[in-house]
Amino acid sequence: MIAPRYAYSLRLLLPLLRVGLGIRSSLSRDGALLLRGAHPPPRVLHPENIPPASPFILTINHYDRPGLGAWWTVAALVTAIAARRARDPREIHFAMAREWWYPRGFRKWIKQPLTRWFFGQIGKAYGTIRLPPALGLEEFRGAGAPAIRGALALTRGDNPELVGIAPEGHTGAGFALRQPPRGAGLFLLLLTRDHIPILPAGIFEDDGVLTVNFGAPFLLRVPRDLARDERDAGAARQVMVALGALLPERMWGAYREEVWNAKSTKENESRERA
What average pLDDT does the segment 66-92 reach? Predict the structure, then answer.
């Protein structure tokens, strides 16, 4: 098997300049340009599950590794979605950290501000939702509120925008699923407002091919009478189990038993209908 290669073309200089200047750009157009350097090209499974016109909240597992940055997976996702949708909205507003956080030293005082500036320019260019990189720290207390309000505003109105989120926030050991941080489930409940469906997409590599597997959209169903923490955990669990069902068994991680049970139940229901 030939090792996959992800190369950067000189054609990317103009998009990078636009990002550096914070000029509004098309994420799907620039993603398609980036993917010209992917060999082999990404594989997209079940694109028919992408709603062609109605709104949705895209949820994905966090997937990156040395030589395959997260921007390659983003490019594969947004180009597949834009190709499926005939009219706006076709672009995804991804939630991402507003900066890389470091506890002390050179990286704290030099690298962290640089990432804050650069991620800010990415936000201006592609309309990303910039969240604090580390919840629970005093320096970020209350910093996420404006970004959350902005994200919620995107899903309101007669023609809601498309929002994408990787609930885990980080790639798990061995690419296995890990539990999202506290509050991720409640954020998703606020975004969906009981009627915007979740579109899950599992990301993995199979025989050296970057693969995006789209699942069927579904509505989050969490009883309103549950305590806040229970609603948070319940919503996050539904999303992560749905993602696990789209991934190879080796990546089920913290949700192994729940994914196994969900897949077994679905298979049993299919046999009964047959």
Answer: 95
